[in-house]
Design a protein that fits this description.
The protein is mainly beta. It has 2 domains: 6-221, Jelly Rolls; 242-324, Sandwich (Jelly Rolls), CATH 2.60.120.10. 14% of the residues lie in helices and 38% in strands. It has helices spanning 21-25, 62-69, 71-74, 76-82, 107-114, 144-152, 217-221; strands at 6-7, 11-19, 36-42, 88-94, 101-103, 121-128, 133-138, 160-164, 170-173, 179-181, 185-192, 198-201, 242-248, 253-259, 263-266, 274-287, 291-296, 300-303, 309-324. The strands form 4 sheets. Strands 1, 13, 14, 15, 16, 17, 18 and 19 form an 8-stranded antiparallel β-sheet that branches. Strand 13 and strand 14 form a beta hairpin. The longest helix is centred in the middle third of the chain and has 9 residues, at 144-152. The radius of gyration is 20 Å and the shape is globular. The two termini are 25 Å apart.
Length: 326
Amino acid sequence: MSLYPLKFKTQAYEKIWGANRIKERFSKEDLKADNIGETWELSGVEGSESVVINGKYKDNNINELTEVFMDELVGDKVFQKYGNKFPLLFKLIDTSDYLSIQVHPDDEMAQQRHNSLGKTEMWYVVDSEEDSTIINGFNKDLTKEEYLNHLNNNTLRKVLEEGKTQAGDTYFIPAGRVHAIGKNILLAEIQQSSDVTYRIFDWNRVDDEGNPRQLHTEEAVDVIDYSKIQNPKVDYKREINSTTQLVECPYFVCNLLWFDKIVEKAYVGIDSFVAYMVVEGAFAVHYNGEEVEVVRAGETILIPAIIEEVKLEPIVPSKALEVYHP
């Protein structure tokens, strides 16, 4: 078997709302930038493809390997649908201030306007402060006209669903949902492989030259879901030594794996790659007999579809997001 669990080089992006916890909490000392707002841990986005850092395929990027190994890497159904482009993007996001209030288009609109996939995503909160909040949708049903009235009168926040957050909270953000991450939050994000964002409001911030950041008011109105959100947070049971489903949608399944004992995983029937995004601890991935790869908090490891069984051995109690294509 030539394929093995793959680890990737982190790509860091400075943001005006960024902070330094990704470097500090996850021991990413090689990241030289300050105010790192996000890191891309596994990406197939064109121009920002993740590069392998372990084993015989070191220095190859994820889309190159998908082109070579096809269904052996990503699964038959995934390859048939997405071809050589890896379909998901895994990020860590760290904030010292609010992100812009924004929305993402769905597949149809993104394809029409940008020749891109749409952007449905989810967040898992790794850490936050006592007063940290997250905006997820509207707190009442709106019409387009009511929304624009609030936007133009600087009263949009009054109709947004905003609530306090803490470690372990999970949010599902389908395309069309207005949303924003608040200040002093560190979270993991899993999304479709797309970088299309419509910025609705940016708290009247300006850039280093005193210019307001670009807004996308006209583009956004046609993609927004104006209905009231019913359940801002994902409701799930937090239980050690179990695999708990957090989100299932047409683009990804995400489970939380929290364990301090050896876990054996069989992927027969999934027909997909499986990725583990480690948010706490460290563990060894045993595969193909006696081969081992160690993965630690802040790292993401990709298990190729051809590997049907692994054994996960915790070095310390660990939490990981287990992600695959449905």
